[in-house]
Amino acid sequence: MSKSIMDKNTRKSLTEARELIDGIVKIDANEAETRRRVEHLFHFLMGYDEFKHLTREYTVENPGDTDYCDFAIVLEETKHPAALIEIKRVTTELAPKHIKQAAGYAINAGCEWVILTNGQHWQLFHITFGKPPETTLLEQWNLMTDDFQDLAGKFEIIGYKNLKKGGLGQLWLKSSVLIPHNVLKIILSENSISSIRRELKRTTDVSVTPEEIVGAVRRLLNESAISELGNIKVSLPSKASKKSKPPVPISSTQTIPPAIESN
C-alpha cells in the first residue's frame, strides 16, 4: 500500500473517530456510552482486537479491597497488562484526582503504563516503581482539536503494533535521557559553548564571551529548568592568550553570570 493511500486511510479513520466522539459530546452521554465508543476507537483506530487484547473491568487487588479499572491491554505473549485504561464521561474534564485514581490502579497492578481519557482528551502516563512511586505524564493530545498528523503519531504510540514491539519502553528510555539536567549538561559543556561562540561569530561577525553565552542560555529557560541549572557544573572554555590556561569551572555553589541586558 502506497504512502498516499495510507495517509488517506488514516485521515478517514481520524475523521470517523472525531465524529464518533462528537456525537456523544452533543448529547452529554454517560460514562458507560463513553467507554463503549472509546473501546471502538481502540479497535478501528489503534488496531486492537476487542476480544483478544482488551479486558473489560480489569480486577486490581489492593490491601483490604478490590478495584476495577475500565480496561486493560493484555497482549498475546503475557497475561500481565501492558497498559491500563481509565475512562471518564465524555464531558468530564480530566483532573488530578482522576490521574491519582488511574495511577493507583497501575501501581497496585504492577503496570508501568496507564492511559486516561474522556474520549476527547487523552493522557499517557508512566509509573516508576520507587519509594514512593512516581507518575510521569509523557504524552497528551486532544482528538477534537489537534492536527491530524499529530494525532496519527500520538495514537500510533499507544497502538497495538507499537505496544507489541515494545515501543513504550523505548519512549520511556528517550524521555529519561532527555531530562533537563542531561540536556543542560550537554549545552553547557566546554565543547558546546566553544561551538556556539564560533557559530555566532561566523553568522553575525560579533564576538561574545563564554559567560555571555551562559547568560543567554539562562534567559531562555523556564523556572523549572533554571532551578536545575544550579545542579550543573559549567566549564567555560579558556580565553585565548599567548599562554594557554585551563578551563575555569563554575561549581554549583558559584553564581552564574546574570543575563546581559542590551541598552
Features:
263 residues, 10 helices, alpha+beta, disordered N terminus, tt1808, chain A, two-stranded antiparallel ribbon, disordered C terminus, 8 strands
Tell me the strand order in the biggest sheet. Answer: 1-2-3-4-5-6
Secondary-structure content class: alpha+beta
Residues in helix, %: 40-55%
Outline, from the CA principal axes? elongated
Q: Approximately how much beta-strand content do the residues carry?
A: 15-25%
How many domains? The number is 2
Intertermini distance: 59 Å
- Please describe the biggest sheet, giving its number of strands, its sense, and whether it closes into a barrel: 6 strands, mixed
Query: What is the level-2 CATH architecture name of the largest domain?
Result: Alpha-Beta Complex
- Work out the helix count: 10
Which radius of gyration do the C-alpha atoms yield?
A: 24 Å
Strand tally: 8
- The name CATH uses for the topology of the largest domain is tt1808, chain A
Q: Any low-confidence stretches, pLDDT <50, length ≥5?
A: 1-6, 241-263
For this structure, what is the CATH class of the largest domain? Alpha Beta
Mean pLDDT: 84
Along the chain, the helix and strand elements come as HHEEEHEEEHHHHHHHEE
Write structural notes for this entry.
This protein is α+β, with helices and mostly antiparallel strands and 263 residues long. It folds into two domains: 3-177, tt1808, chain A; 181-250, no CATH class. It is 45% helix and 19% strand. The strands form two sheets. A six-stranded mixed β-sheet has the order 1-2-3-4-5-6, with helices on both faces. The protein has a two-stranded antiparallel ribbon with strand order 7-8. A hairpin with a 2-residue loop joins strand 1 (54-62) and strand 2 (65-73). Helix 1 (3-26) runs antiparallel to helix 2 (31-44). The longest helix is centred in the N-terminal third of the chain and has 24 residues, at 3-26. It is elongated and about 65 Å long. The model is unreliable at 1-6 and 241-263 (pLDDT under 50).
